[in-house]
Design goal:
The termini are far apart. The chain has a single domain, classed as Immunoglobulin-like, CATH 2.60.40. It has about 120 residues and is mainly β. The strands form 2 sheets. The protein has a 4-stranded antiparallel β-sheet with strand order 1-2-7-6, with no helix packed on it. It is about 0% helix and about 40% strand.
Length: about 120
C-alpha cells in the first residue's frame, strides 16, 4: 500500500520517581517550544501542542508518509504524593525533549490516636 496516511502524533512520556521529585519527560521531536504548553488540571499534568507537517510532504510525487503530525493532548495523572500545583513544578525544553520536575509532598501525618481501655 503506497502513500499510507500518517498517524496522529502522540508524544512518548516517561514518569520517574527521583526521591524528592517526579521527573516527567516527553519526547517532542521536531517541535519548537512555542508549539507546546503544559498546565495542571485536577491534579494531572496536561500537555497540549501541535506538531506541524513538513511542507515538503504535500508535494506531488510523494511516495510514502509515515511521520506523525497534528494536534495532541496528553493528560498525565499524578500520584497523590505529587504536588504539580501551586507553581512549584518546573519545565525545561531542550532539543525536542520537554522535562518537568514535580515536587513530592510529605505524607500527611496519620490521624490516629490511642483509645484508653478501662
Amino acid at each position: 500500500m503506497l502513500g499510507a496516511l500518517p498517524a496522529r502524533f502522540q508524544p512518548r512520556i516517561d514518569v520517574v520517581d527521583e526521591g524528592p521529585v517526579l521527573r516527567v519527560t516527553a519526547e517532542l521531536p521536531g517541535m519548537e517550544r512555542e508549539h507546546v504548553s503544559a498546565s495542571v488540571e485536577d491534579g494531572a499534568i496536561v500537555l497540549r501542542g501541535e506538531k506541524k507537517q513538513d511542507v515538503h510532504s504535500e508535494e506531488n510525487g510523494c511516495y510514502r508518509l509515515e511521520r506523525a503530525h497534528g494536534r495532541f493532548v496528553r493528560t498525565i495523572p499524578m500520584p497523590e504524593y505529587a504536588d504539580p500545583g501551586r507553581g512549584r513544578a518546573l519545565a525545561k525544553f531542550d532539543n525536542g525533549v520537554l522535562t518537568l520536575t514535580v515536587p513530592k509532598t510529605e505524607p500527611a501525618p496519620s490521624a490516629s490516636r490511642t483509645i484508653d481501655i478501662s
